[in-house]
Structures are given as structure tokens and as C-alpha cells.
Amino acid sequence: MARASSAQTPTPTDTDHIRNVVLVGPSGSGKTRLFDHLVSRTTPGYRPPNRDDQRTTGLEVAALECGDVVLNLIDAPGYPDFVGELRAGLRAGDAALFVISATDGVDAATEALWHECAAVNQPRAVVVTKLDAPRADYAGTLAATQAAFGDGVLPLGIPVVRQSRLEEIVDLVLGEVHDYSGGQRAVRATGPEHIPVFDEYHGPLLEGIITEAEDDTLLERYLGGEEVGFEIVEAALLTAVARGSFHPVVPLSVDTGAGIDVIMHLVEAAFPPPPMRPMPTVFTVAGAAGPQLVGDPGGPLVAEVVRTTNDPYAGHVALLRVFSGTLTADTVVHVSGHLGSFVGHEVEGHEDHDEQVRVGPLSSPLGSELRPKDAAIAGDLAVVAKLGAAQTSDTVSDKDDPLVIEPWQMPQALLPVAIQPATRADLDKLPGALQRIAGADPSLRVEHNGETGQTVLWTMGPTHLDLVMARLKESFNVDVAPEDLRIPLRETFVGRHTAQGRHVKQSGGHGQYAVCQITVEPLERGAGFEFVDKVVGGAVPRQFIPSVEKGVRAQLEKGTISNYPMVDVRVTLHDGKAHSVDSSDAAFQTAGALALKEAAATNGAITLLEPIDVLEVKVADDHVGAVMTDMQTRRGRIQGSEPANQAGYSVVRAEVPQLELSRYAIDLRSLSHGSGTFTRTFSGYEQMPHRLVEEHLVAG
Questions:
Q1: What residues have CB less than 8 Å from 693, skipping those under 6 apart?
Q2: Which is nearest to 653 in space by CA: 678, 625, 635, 673?
Q3: Rounded to an integer, what distance in angstroms lies between the CA atom of residue 238 and that of residue 223?
Q4: Considering only CA atoms, which of 51, 106, 113 is closest in space to residue 86?
Q5: Residues 26, 78 contacting (CB under 8 angstroms)
Q6: For FRET with 103, which of 110, 177, 496, 695 sits at 20 to 30 Å CA-CA?
Q7: Dihedral pair phi/psi, residue 590, rounded to 5°
Q8: What are the start-end ranges of the H helices in 485-584?
Q9: φ, ψ for residue 31 (rounded to 5)?
């Protein structure tokens, strides 16, 4: 719930004094508690909400004063079902604090989140939390992090834990100790007991930082024994972090907040401001290449809608990241939405649109609270109410020079669930509700399957599905229930069959008379339908031969024994009879359809075809065997495997029937201990095993 706040609104003086930082980490790592500590430390009177260990499902943002900079802190979900929200947060941010628990270490979920950051080259520092827990192992966690993520992971501070309490952090850069044993931070010089720590960690840290410095001679001078001052090291640290190849590690107690001061200084001094980060690509609304953005507050306005929500008090609310220009309230802007053009297909809730909109009030977020904001300059974030029909990933730009930002890569929703409205009233409200939910959540795909008549929600996983169902009920008062997902099959003929279609009817006046004889035979998969005319001697008048074909085609669409369309057959018309008065176009259409049904009635003449998908599964090497075995139990054909573009992972390819994939998103997560991801692409139709054909025909 968004509500007004009496806290003062942080206002950046220029883009260099903005830090947009995303908190990234797996569920249970202490990420959201870090968010609360940072907000509490910088905002007098702020009281963190009682979260009751609730799982984060969306972005939570707070604009804070952090030294001389404005810190836009973004808490992103860590659960795999909400990777779409994470990617939106990474687009809004310029760097990340990557949170790892000292009790859990590096698991598959942690590696997946790190890979998400690496995919967009997001600079990041590592925060090791839960050091007060009995099973905490900082050294082991550091070693596991370095093994998983490379030599660029190096500690800035080493924790000293006594009796399950983080009491000191040894600062390896400044050569001092942050002492928290008295409840408040006290800084003192290091003692002889800290010499082993410096001997082990200080040298590699400085070498790692200096290697990334812009001065190519600095490393050589340092190795030659020259003393390197703190100012030089700090400047080199900013360069190293901004390049995304160096990842400093800092310890933190989420129980007491010990270490927060170190993190705040790191963010202010060593995290990149917006001008140091690449700008997104922009296009004109006609699709031509747009100008290169430079992040100038005085430049043309270009902003992106990172997230939208429907608040019961504020109404339709949008979170924007401004990349160029300055956004102010009560000005007319252009809102463009062309998500379908970028992803290659129409997206429910994101139909292409271009409109002029007057900007409503601007606000600065503080968790669930909002503070009035006069303007948002390039690099800043702002919450905007009353921005028309703007949806997540839309672009806001100057009305006289509209542009479209290429959106971030949307995740592929792979868990399909068919839903059925509870009442007629729910049926009437469902389309509008789904359009609004999908507009705010591009990771949800809504399919209206015209063949099966089902509405199918494609979600990221069971928790995402539960959230969508809850929003339908709580926000739109729409009751729905899941139902069995129907997979569209196809009919085809097995072997060559001949049949006659006879339609003779006399009921006074003109009658109906048409007889046709056809031969039906199967074609190769994907060939479609072929009609051949071999009538001789005028047995079927020339004007009625197209009528026979039309009747056959109509029956193909309806199917013959299962209501599934029939495909991949050749129908040859070779004989028939006609009446000079009673034959007609309609009569021969009916005869053609009857002939096809008669041929299909022969025992064993018809079989069913099922859709096949090509599956590409990326999974940790330890689970490749289990994944292959599971694919075989799903009637899959393994095509092969190869190393993935991520160390320790492989890609397995297989062709698998769609009937076996409805729960694969859930099953793979369990089978691979969270390390597996997959894509699926339609390949074609193949003959279904006879046993399954019988089961489907019996089931109707």
C-alpha cells in the first residue's frame, strides 16, 4: 500500500551523485534485512515493517541519503519464479549488492542469480551475511564464492566473530579495525593479532584492485615496492567495480547491523554513478535507429517504466528509471509500448500503443511510503501516478520526439495451467483482469487457445501461479479454478483406404443426389492436405468436383473420430454419380464429407498425432544423467549434450511430446536441485503410441 510519508525527500544535485543499487540474493540470505538496515540507518524515525519471513515477490524501492549521494536502493526477489522482477530491477540499477549467507554458502540458486547479473554485466559487490549464526563459515563461504565466480572475488574486510557475535571487521584497505563489541562502531588501529590476516589477504586484494586501474604502470610500481596511497586505491576500486570484473566482499551481521557503515561507504565511493554505465538502445516509434543516449539532464527526455502496480489508494502507479532529460509533473509526454515488436509475437496486456499523456504527481519511494518529488533527472528513479495506460517496459519520452527503448530480455514462462471461471460473472470479468495483470507482469503469458477453448496461464512456476490467482481474487474479485490442460492433437490415416460417400434424399420438389468414391492415403509429416481429381467420363460433373474437395476439407477441420483436425493425407476422387436435376454443390459437399468419414470408420484406419517440442535443458554437470533418464521416461529422444557457456554446466537436447511437459518446470527444479533451466520450441507432429491412442479415444 502506498501512503504519504513525512520523511524528507532526497534530491540529487547531479547524475554523478546518484547510486542505483539492486539487492540480489537467494531466498533466506538476509537480503531484505539488509534493505531494512540500510533504510533505518539513513532515515530517522523509520521502522521496518513486520515481514514475518515473507518471500519477496516484487521490487521494493527506497531513495536514501548516503553520505553525499542519493542511493536508490532496490530490493529484488531472489526466488526463481520471480526472475522477471529481478531483471526489471537490474535494468533500473547500475550496480548490485550480491548477498550470500555464511550458513548456506553457494548453491544452484545463488549461481543462477549471479549468472543473471553477469548476463547484463552488472557491477557487483558480495555481502556475506548471517555471521552470527552457529554454523556460519566466512572462510568457507569466501572460498566457495571464489571457486564459483572467479579470482575477481576478493575480501575488503575480514570478520572477527566471538561467541556467535560479529565484533570486529578488519579493513584490509585502510589497515584499521571497525570494532562493534560495544554496540556502536569504534575505529581503532590494527594490532599484532591482525598480522596473519593482512599477510594472507592484503597483497592479493591490492593487486586485484590495481590491476583494474586506468594507470597501466601502477601495478608495476606497486610490485616494485612503491607505496600506493589510499586515494589512488579508492579511485582504482571504483574503476575495478564499474568494469564488472572485480567483486569486493564485505561481511555483515543482519542481526545487529554491524558492517552497514562499510557497505554504505563502499556504495558511495566505489559504486558507479549512472554516467559510467552503458545506456540502453533506443529506436524511433517507426522502428528506425534512434540517437545514442548520454544521460544528460538537459537532453531529450527518455525514461522507462520498470514496474507498474494498481494501488487501492493511488490507483495506477508506475516506477520509472530516467535515462535522459528531466521528468517533471504536469507536463505532456509520449508513452510508447511496442513489446510485441521486440519479442516477435503479441503479448497480452502489451498491445502496441502510442499516446500523449499528462504526467501526474511525482513521488520518491521509501518502501511502502511515498514522498513528494519535484523532478527526476537523468539517472534517477521516480514513482508516477496517473500515467495513462503505461505498462511495464513502456517508454516515456518527449511528445515532439518520441522514442522507444529496447526492453530488457523477458524470461520465458514455461509452466502452463488452464483455468476455468467459477461463474458467468467471473467469465465476463476475467479478460479485463488478466489484461491488467499481464500488463504489469510481462513474465506472465496468457494464451487463449481457440482449438481447445481453454484460457491458459503460462507462469514461471507454482509460486508465481499462486500470486496471479491471488491477484485475480483480491484485486479484481475473479474466482477461477485450475482444470486439466488439453493438448491439441491431430488425426491422420494409417495406410490406404477407399470409401464411398452417398447422399441421396427426396422429400418433395427438388431432391439431393450426390455419390462420390474416394481413396485416402497418408502423406509424410507436415505435408498437409492434397486433393487429386482422377474422375473420367464425367461421372462427377466438373462443376461439382470443387464441391467434393470443399466438403472433404470441412470434415478434415472437424476430424472424424476424435474431434481433432485431420492432417497429412491425400484424397483422390476417382468416381461418382450425379443426377441432372437433384445434384447440387451442397449435395456433393455432403457426399465428400461422408466419404471421408466412411473411410475413417474402417477399423485401424485412423491414428492420432501428438505435438513434439525440442527441449534444451541447461543443468549442472552433476545432474545430467538424472535429466537424461527422466527425459526417457517422458518418451523423449535424446539428441545429444554439450558443454554450456557456464563452467560446470551442460546443455542436453531432446525431442519430447508436449503431453509429457505440462509439469516439467516443476519437476526439473526438483530433479536438478534448482540448477536446471530449459527452453522449448515446437517441432512438429508425430504418431502417438497405439496404447495412448486408445486411452485418448476412450476418454473422449
A1: 607, 608
A2: 678
A3: 21
A4: 113
A5: yes
A6: 177
A7: -65, -40
A8: 545-558
A9: -60, -50
- pLDDT (tens digit, 9 = 90+) per residue, 620-657? 999 999 999 999 999 999 999 999 988 899 999 999 99
Give percent of the chain above pLDDT 70: 96
CA 377 to chain centre: 28
Q: Give per-residue pLDDT as tens, 491-547.
A: 999 999 999 999 998 776 678 999 999 999 999 999 999 999 999 988 999 999 999
Interatomic CA distance for residues 188 and 190, integer angstroms: 7
pLDDT digits (tens, 9 = 90+) for 393-443: 999 999 999 999 999 999 999 999 999 999 999 999 999 999 999 999 999
Tens digits of residue pLDDT in 331-363: 999 999 999 888 888 888 899 999 999 999 999
Q: Residue 548 and residue 529: Cα distance in Å, rounded?
A: 14
Measured distance CA(141)–CA(448) in Å, rounded: 47
- Separation between Cα atoms, residue 511 and residue 215, nearest integer Å: 98
What stretches of 314-407 show up as alpha helix (H) in DSSP?
339-343
- Residue 653 CB burial class (10 angstroms; 0-12, 13-18, ≥19): middle
Residue 260: burial class (beta carbons within 10 Å; 0-12, 13-18, 19+): buried
DSSP 486: P
- CA dist., res. 111 & res. 127, Å (int): 15
Q: What is the pLDDT of residue 17?
A: 96
Contact 294, 274 (CB under 8 A): no
Phi, psi of 512 (to 5 degrees): -130, 125
- Alpha-carbon separation of residue 620 from 197, 249, 615, 651 (angstroms): 34, 25, 16, 9
Among 114, 125, 107, 99, smallest CA distance to 19 is for 125
Cell of 593: 464429407
Torsion, Cα 27 30 31 35, to 10 degrees, reads 140
pLDDT digits 0-9 by tens, 441-474: 999 999 999 889 999 999 999 999 999 999 999 9
450 C-beta neighbours (distance < 10 Å), count: 8
Rounded to the nearest 10 degrees, the angle between the axes of helix 585-600 and helix 545-558 is 50
- What letters, b where the CB count within 10 A reaches 16 and e where it falls short, cover 400-417? eebbbbbbbebbebbbbb
pTM: 0.90
The strand pairing partners of 154, in sequence order, are 248
- The CA distance from 84 to 393, in Å, is 11
Which helix (H) or strand (E) is 617 found in, with range?
Answer: strand 606-620
Phi and psi, residue 453, nearest 5°: 75, 10
Cell of 73: 536502493
The pLDDT score that the predictor gives to residue 134 is: 87
**Quick one: CA dihedral 551, 556, 557, 562, positive or negative?**
positive
On whether the CB atoms of residues 131 and 99 are closer than 8 A, the answer is no
Q: 199-208, 243-252, 563-572 — which is least confidently predicted?
A: 199-208
Written as one letter, the residue type at 152 is: G
Judge whether 271 and 234 are in contact, CB under 8 Å. Answer: no
Q: Which domains does the chain have, with CATH numbers?
A: 17-276 (3.40.50.300), 282-405 (2.40.30.10), 416-483 (3.30.70.870), 490-604 (3.30.230.10), 608-699 (3.30.70.240)
**Concatenated DSSP letters of 144-158:** HHHHHH-TTEEESEE
| Helices assigned H by DSSP within 623-689 | 624-633, 664-671
Asked whether the predicted pLDDT for residue 2 surpasses 50, the reply is no
Q: φ and ψ at 402, to 5 degrees? A: -70, 140
CA distances from 698 to 81, 566, 662 (A): 37, 18, 21
